[in-house]
Each structure stands twice: as C-alpha cells, then as structure tokens.
Amino acid sequence: MASSFSILLAAVTLVALLAIGSCGTDFTVHVEKGSSPTKLSLVTNVDVSEVEIREKGSNDFLECKGSGTKWTLESKEPLKGPFAVRLTLKNGGYRVDDAAIPEEWKADSVYKTKIQV
C-alpha cells in the first residue's frame, strides 16, 4: 500500500511535468514597414531555420528568403491573405498556423500566432 508521502510525491511530480510541458513562447511575426502587396518583410521573435508562407486559396507554401529572425517573401503578383505560416525550428521540428497573418494585414504590425515554441 502506498504511503501518503509517495502519493504526495507523485502528485507534485505530475504537476511539475504538466507545468513544464505547457510553458512555451508565443511565436510572433512582425510585418515590417517596407512590406507591400507584393513583398512581405518579416521579423520573428524566435530564431528559426526556415519560414514558409501559404496564401489564401493555395495548397503550396512559398519559401521565404532569409535566416534567423529576418525573412522576406517577394512576388510579381499581389499576395493574398490571410497567410498561413509554417516554420522549421532549429531542432528540426516544424509548426503551422493556418491564419497567422490576417487578410487585412498592415505594415509595422505584430501578429501573435497560435504557435508555441
């Protein structure tokens, strides 16, 4: 039969594991001032390996150019939001938010995504 101390220790351990597992950083995207209908200049709050953007109505992600926290996507045609963001983390994992940047985005604005890193 388990002692009260063993049960208490197990409960404390479980609470600690749940707290650690739920602690993450909200991934944000800053659409910089130089952005236009054909160019998205992005700064992320976390250093990542790759950022890709999917336009509204598309099945394909477009690879942004850049590294670390600064990324750019340029197009000959106006880009159509809302935009999904897929990022590759430094550890190789990836995350996706299907509506990270709204349709009516504005330059020099920060958007909080649903992504936890």
Automatic annotation (TrEMBL):
Domain Expansin-like CBD: 47-113
Domain of life: Eukaryota
Keyword Nucleus: no
Residues annotated as transmembrane: none
Keyword terms: Signal
Signal peptide: 1-24
Name under which the protein is recorded: Expansin-like CBD domain-containing protein
